[in-house]
């Protein structure tokens, strides 16, 4: 059988079984399984890993359970500023956007940046202008409004505080979304999308749109999508660090992910996790928090979604 594999995440953090109702748990598991099924069918049809991760993240952006697209958190100004990136491992092509508003699916825009713009990273109004030229779907503010997210913001509004989506053990909806895949041609891809921090100011940008920090793919090694305390993932260049350990120290995917997430990241104060897949189709769902919304599926019969540690 052709070797294909897919993994996804929907955020990592203080995710405790006691704080999630059975109905909420079912909703998250069902959403993740639905996303896995969509991406895996694309791989089964012989389409690219890039197509698969774009479709998975698009599905998760459209699901209000997660902090991306429709479920994005509120900024200090009461708006939504979204970040995303995509990368393919064959030629190391990548596209990224940050601080964009109104675009229904930021991940679709990142692929257009990669394939149509001649650039890697676009931001703010310029990225939105490019999106209009490319015919991307825009939505008004009401599409992105979510009552839970609004109440989450109200607790921090008019303060200097901000909140990572995964940093509270009260009944929260989490987090950044991402996917990684290996297609039947041996090509890897990764995609990541987020709404960032609640009550964020000053155009804050996390690791999700930064190639090498929150997202990376290289056919020689692996594809990685991260979620967690973005400032620390940036400083640790986490996604690329996993790839480096595989390429230059010959670590396995599992060993490289463990070294970065369980040892290197905590040393500088970071928490969170990642999903990764290597060129042989091995997957790793590594995190140093109480839980991470995650799942993986491959041609060896693995097909599971999880929440808790």
Automatic annotation (TrEMBL):
Is the keyword Transmembrane assigned to this protein? Answer: no
Q: Which CDD domains match?
A: Asparaginase_2
Which amino acids does the record list as binding substrate? 204-207, 227-230
Could you cite one Gene Ontology molecular function of this protein? peptidase activity
- Where does the record place the site Cleavage? 175-176
Q: Name one GO biological process term.
A: proteolysis
Keyword set includes Hydrolase: yes
- Tell me one Pfam family matched here: Asparaginase_2
SUPFAM superfamilies according to UniProt: N-terminal nucleophile aminohydrolases (Ntn hydrolases)
Gene3D superfamilies given for it? (Glycosyl)asparaginase (3.60.20.30)
Active site per the UniProt annotation: 176
UniProt keyword terms in alphabetical order: Autocatalytic cleavage, Hydrolase, Protease
> What is the name of this protein?
Isoaspartyl peptidase
- Source organism of the structure: Fulvivirga sediminis
State the taxonomy lineage: Bacteria, Pseudomonadati, Bacteroidota, Cytophagia, Cytophagales
């Amino acid at each position: 059988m052709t070797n294909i594999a897919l993994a996804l995440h929907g955020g990592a953090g203080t995710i405790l079984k006691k704080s999630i109702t059975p109905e909420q748990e079912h909703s998250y598991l069902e959403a993740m399984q639905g996303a896995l099924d969509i991406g895996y069918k694309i791989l089964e049809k012989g389409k690219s890993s890039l197509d698969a991760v774009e479709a998975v993240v698009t599905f998760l952006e459209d699901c209000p359970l997660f902090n991306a697209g429709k479920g994005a958190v509120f900024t200090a100004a009461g708006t939504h500023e979204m970040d995303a990136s995509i990368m393919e491992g064959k030629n190391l092509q990548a596209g990224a956007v940050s601080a964009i508003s109104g675009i229904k699916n930021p991940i679709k825009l990142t692929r257009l940046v990669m394939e149509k713009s001649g650039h890697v990273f676009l931001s703010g109004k310029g990225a939105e202008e490019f999106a209009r030229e490319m015919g991307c779907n825009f939505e008004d503010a009401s599409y992105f409004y979510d009552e839970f997210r609004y109440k989450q913001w109200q607790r921090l509004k008019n303060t200097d505080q901000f909140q990572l989506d995964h940093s509270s053990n009260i009944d929260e909806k989490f987090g950044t979304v991402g996917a990684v895949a290996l297609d039947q041609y041996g090509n890897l891809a990764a995609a990541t999308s987020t709404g960032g921090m609640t009550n964020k100011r000053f155009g804050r940008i996390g690791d999700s749109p930064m190639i090498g920090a929150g997202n990376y793919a290289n056919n020689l090694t692996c594809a990685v999508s991260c979620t967690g305390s973005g400032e620390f993932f940036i400083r640790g260049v986490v996604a690329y660090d996993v790839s480096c350990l595989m390429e230059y120290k010959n670590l396995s995917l599992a060993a490289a992910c463990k070294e970065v997430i369980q040892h290197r990241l905590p040393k500088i104060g970071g928490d969170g996790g990642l999903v990764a897949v290597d060129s042989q189709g091995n997957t790793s769902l590594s995190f140093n928090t109480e839980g991470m919304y995650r799942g993986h599926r491959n041609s060896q019969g693995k097909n599971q979604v999880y929440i808790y540690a």
